[in-house]
Write a structure and sequence with these properties.
single chain, 285 residues, alpha+beta, paralog of FGE (formylglycine-generating enzyme), seven-stranded antiparallel beta sheet, four-stranded mixed beta sheet, 5 helices, binds calcium ion
C-alpha cells in the first residue's frame, strides 16, 4: 500500500529552536546558517541534523530509524521476530540490516526529494571515516566515544552507551546466542534502543557510542572490495572493537537485506549495520 506520508524539511533556529522556514512552502529554504537543522519526514518522523562547524557539514543527530526508512521506502518489507516485547518501540529504534548499497539508496532518495532545499553544493551522504571519528572525539583526544575508561562510562548526558551488557545475556534476547557481555555493565537495553535514548556526546550527537554500527563513505580495504562500518552496536562487548579507530566491514552489496528491525538472523548481510546521514559537500567513493 502506498504511503500517504509526505516529506518536508524544516530548519530550526540554532539559538532558540524556532521554526525558520518549511520547504513545502518555501523552496528557497537554506540550511546553510550555522545551527540545528531538522528534516521532517512526517509530523512524527523527522531527520535532525547538527551543524558541525569544524567539519563544515550537518551531521545526523541520531541513527536513521526504522520509521524513517519506512517513510522513505514505503514498499520495503519490515520483518522482526516475535521475541520482541509488544511495547517495543520499533519505529524510533534504528533500522538495522541495512546494506551499504541501501544506505546509498537512502541518500539518493533524499537528494531527489530535497535537492532544492539544501545549501548550494551540499548533498545528503554518509560520513567519511575521518568525519565519523572527529564527531566521536568531539575535538578531544580520547580512546572511546565516551572517554578513556573501560568498562564504558556514561556519555555527556549521563546516559550509558548501548552496548552488550549483562541485560542482553539475562534477557535471552541475544541473537545470535552468546553468553558474552561487558563484565559488570548494564545499560538497560537488551537490544537496540530508541535513537534518542542511546547517549549524547558533547556535540549533541546520539548513538556514537553504540546501538548500531554506521556505514561510512569510502572503502574498508584495498583493493577496494569491502565497505566500511564505524562505531559499535548493542551487541558489542570487546573493548578494542569499541575504540573510535576500530573498523568493521561487509561487502555492503546485498539487495535482499531490507530495512529490518533487529531480530531476523540472515546469512547474506550484516545484522548490526545501520546508518547516520550527513548534509555535506560531495566526496569520492
Ligand atoms: Ca551508533
Amino acid at each position: 500500500m502506498a504511503s500517504t506520508r509526505k516529506m518536508r524539511i524544516v530548519a530550526l533556529c540554532a539559538m532558540c529552536g524556532a521554526l525558520v522556514a518549511a520547504c513545502s512552502q518555501s523552496p528557497a529554504l537554506t540550511l546553510g546558517a550555522e545551527g540545528l537543522g531538522k528534516c521532517q519526514l512526517a509530523p512524527d518522523e523527522s531527520l535532525e541534523f547538527v551543524w558541525l562547524k569544524d567539519l563544515n557539514l550537518w551531521m545526523g543527530k541520531h541513527e536513521v530509524t526504522l520509521g524513517q526508512m519506512k517513510c522513505l521506502f514505503p514498499s520495503t518489507k519490515e520483518r522482526h521476530q516475535d521475541y520482541y516485547a509488544k511495547d517495543w518501540d520499533k519505529e524510533t529504534s534504528p533500522a538495522v540490516n541495512v546494506s551499504w548499497k541501501q544506505a546509498q539508496q537512502t541518500c539518493r532518495a533524499l537528494n531527489r526529494k530535497c535537492a532544492k532545499q539544501l545549501p548550494h553544493g551540499y548533498v545528503f551522504r554518509l560520513p567519511t571515516e575521518g568525519e565519523w571519528e572527529a564527531a566521536a572525539r568531539c575535538g578531544r583526544d580520547r580512546t572511546y566515544p565516551w572517554g578513556d575508561s573501560w568498562p564504558p562510562a556514561p556519555m555527556a548526558d549521563s546516559v550509558l552507551p548501548n552496548l552488550q551488557g549483562l541485560e542482553t545475556v539475562s534477557s535471552g534476547r541475544e541473537n545470535p546466542p552468546t553468553s558474552r557481555a561487558i563484565p559488570g555493565y548494564k545499560d538497560g537495553w537488551p537490544s537496540t534502543c530508541p535513537v534518542d535514548q542511546s547517549g549524547m556526546n558533547e556535540w549533541g550527537l546520539l548513538g556514537m557510542g553504540g546501538n548500531v554500527q554506521e556505514w561510512c563513505e569510502g572503502w574498508y580495504n584495498q583493493p577496494q572490495q569491502l565497505r566500511l562500518l564505524k562505531g559499535c552496536s548493542a551487541w558489542e562487548h570487546q573493548a578494542q572493537r569499541c575504540e573510535i579507530i576500530a573498523r568493521d566491514c561487509d561487502t555492503g552489496q546485498s539487495e535482499a537485506m531490507g530495512f529490518f528491525f533487529w531480530g531476523e538472523v540472515r546469512n547474506d548481510g550484516h545484522n548490526y549495520s545501520g546508518l547516520r546521514l550527513v548534509i555535506g559537500k560531495p566526496v569520492g567513493r
